[in-house]
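Database export, one record per block. Field names are fixed; values are copied verbatim from the stored entry.
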Amino acid sequence: MSVGRHFGVIISRMPHMTYAAAHQAPQDCRFICSACYVDCWGIHRLTGETAWTCWRCTDLKEHGVAPGPRLLNTQPPRPLRVGEQLRSPDGIWTVARSERVDVREDGTRVQARMYVLTREDGHEEEWRGRDMVDFHLVPAAFEHIDRARCNELGSMLTAAGLHWQDNGRRDTPRRLRYTATGPRGRQWSIRPVSPFDFDPWQPSNLWRASRASRDQTPAMTAQSLADHIRQSGA
């Protein structure tokens, strides 16, 4: 269908969503995501939904996370627990102590949550919870990998025409590994991203592949990874 002058829209309908993308459009004809209000060239609408959202918000919605503007921090709404790990621009930190203290704000006595954080090198700092906008919670080990995600990767590799196999460790994702053979017989080793590399704002970027220990991909979706391996030897 065509909308306006010099502006075309390509609409693709899939079983779980409808996708609309701008084609040969000027810069001022981009869509606006209804959740995070970012400008984008393509928008998605999940089956049964009425809102059109960008790919990131759609991905979050599919994972049961409320879409919207990307926040500065990725901490849970609950208090942090002792032993949990966080990452910041200064390194990886572990929550060593957590306590509620009384502080004064504008002459009023209020309660606040204070944390003692220990960095990998042993350096220790004390932080107030509301000031920790640069600290991001590291998820528990591989809780982001499940059997459905493994099945999705296998389906994408098969659909790309690649021969692949796994080592049968789907119940222990820490030891899970896939081997895929790309064009010209090149072999790729595929592993789940580690908890430290997992981005909760891009929950489908779960996989990373390497070839001969020198050509490593960034964290990618199953579809993007399969396409990358298929096209690497084309």
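Remark 1: The mean pLDDT is 83.
Remark 2: The first strand starts at residue 8 and ends at 13.
End of record.
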